[in-house]
User: Fold these one by one.
Assistant:
Number 1:
Amino acid sequence: MQTVLITGGAGFIGSHLVERLLRDGLCVRVLDNLDPFYDVAKKQRNLEMLRAVASSCGGASRFEFLLGDLRDAEACRAAVAGVDVVVHLAALAGVRPSIQEPVRYWDVNLLGTQVLLQAIENPQVRFVFGSSSSVYGGNTKVPFAESDPVDRPVSPYAATKKSGEVQLHAWHHLRGNPVTCLRFFTVYGPRQRPEMAIHQFARHITNGTELPFFGDGSTRRDYTYVEDIVAGIVAAMDKPKPYAIYNLGGAATTSLAELVGHLERALGRPARRKLLPDQPGDVPITYADVSLAGRELGYRSSTPLAQGIDKFCAWYMQEKREGRVL
Ligand SMILES: NC(=O)c1ccc[n+]([C@@H]2O[C@H](COP(=O)([O-])OP(=O)(O)OC[C@H]3O[C@@H](n4cnc5c(N)ncnc54)[C@H](O)[C@@H]3O)[C@@H](O)[C@H]2O)c1
C-alpha cells in the first residue's frame, strides 16, 4: 500500500486531497504547523473530519498527523520516512499579504521547501509541488500555456512559486527524483481559505455588508473547483514524469462582475459593492490552457462555475447555521 506525505494537509486543498486518498485506501501522513494565517480552529476541524473519515473507511491507522514546521529538519526527516510520494502543499499562500511580508514568504516557501527536499534520501520518492497560476504574472497572451514565459512575476508570492519550480528542477537534476509541478488556478469550494475572494464575498453578501469591488469589475479569473484540482493531483501522483509542469485550471475565465452575480444568485441576496481601485500585485486575467494536462494526465475540469458556486454556497450556509462563520 502506498504511503503519501501531504505537507499542508490540514489546509484547504490539502484536506480535500487527504480525504480523497483515505477513501481510495492509501496511507496518508500530514505535516502541518497549523500556521495562524487564518483561524487555526478551521484546520483543527479539518483534521477531526479526516480522522473520522479514516475510521469510517476502516483504517484509523492509515492516517497520521505530524505537527511540525517545514523549516525544521528533524520534523521533515520524520515526515518523509518510508513514504512513496510527497505532495508539497504547505506554504504561505495569498498574493496581497506577501507584499506586506515578503521575507516570511521567502522563508517558508523557499527555505522550507529546501529543508524538506534535503530530508528526502530515497531517489524513488515522487514529488508533486503545488505551484500557482500567479507565475504567469501580467501575461496578456491567453490562455496561459506551460511554454509561455514566466520570468516576470508581479508579487513576492508569485516569485516564490516560480522560484520553487526552479529549485525543484535543480533538485531533480542532482538527485533524480521525479518531480511534477502543478500550477493551480484560483481554487474554490468548501473549506476555502476565508480571505479568498469567493469566501469573503459570500460573507459580505449574507451579512449585508459592503463587498470590496476592485477596479471596474472587468478583471478575469479562471476558477477551479477543488475536487477537479484533487483529481489532477492524484493523476500526477499516479503518472510520474522525470520533471514536468502542468496547468490545472477550470479552462474558462469569469469577470469579477460575473462572479459576484453567480454568488448573488446562489445566496439569493444582492451584493452591496464598495468600488475600490485596482490592487497592487493583481493581474488582469488568468486563463488556463489545460491541453497538456489533458493529454499527459487525463485531466479535465468537470465542474462548471455555476455548479461549483452552488456547492460552495450550500457549504457556506451550513457553516453559518452552525455558527462557524461570522
Ligand atoms: N487556493 C488556491 O487558490 C491556490 C492557488 C494556487 C496555488 N495554491 C497553493 O496550494 C497550496 C495549498 O493552498 P491552500 O489554499 O490549501 O492554503 P492553506 O493555507 O489552506 O494551506 C496551506 C497549509 O500549509 C500549512 N503551513 C504553512 N506554513 C507551514 C510551515 N512552515 N510548515 C508546515 N506547514 C505549513 C498551513 O498551516 C496550512 O494548513 C499552497 O502551496 C498554495 O500556494 C493555492
Number 2:
Amino acid sequence: MPASYRPARIAALVGGLLLLAVGVLAPAAPAWAHNELTASAPADGARLAAPPRQVVLTFAQRLDQRYTQIVVTDGHREPMPARQPTVSGTSATLDLEGDLPDGGYTVAYRVVSPDGHPVQGALTFSVGPATAAASPGAPIAAPPPAETESRRPTSAILGAGAAAALAIAGGWAVRHRRARAR
Ligand SMILES: [Cu+2]
C-alpha cells in the first residue's frame, strides 16, 4: 500500500527541515552557554583622577573561585601588585596593593563558563590627567570581551536538534497512522 508511505515521507521531510534549521542557526547563535563580562569598576576606558583601590568585574553567570584570574598590567605590561581575586556570586574583586602611578592600565581576566570552557578578555583604564599614554580626546577602543576558544558544542546542539526533530517527526507519523486507522 503505497499511500501509507506518505505520512512517513512527510515526517522525514519535516524532520529534515528541522535539522536544516538547527544546522543553519546553530553556528550563528551566540555562545549562550558561555560566561561574559557585563560590568566593571573601573569601567572600560575610564580615566580616573585617583588610583583605584580595587577592580571589580561582574559577569553574566556565577564564577568559580578556583578558575578566576585577574591581572592588572601597566603600559610596560608589568603586572601590578595585587591579592588573589575573591569571588562572590557573579562578581570578582581584585584588591590592589598600593597606589597605581599615573598612566594607562589593562585589566586582563580569565574565567570559566559553567560548561567548563574558558572565557577571557581585557579592558583598559587610566589614572591621572590625560598624558602621552592616550592622545587627548581620542576614545579608548572598547572591544567586546574576546572569546579565545572557538570550540562550540555544535555536535551536542545538532544531536539535541536531531533528537527533537526525530521525536516530532515520529509523533507526527504516529498521529497520522492513528488517524488513518480510524
Ligand atoms: Cu563552552
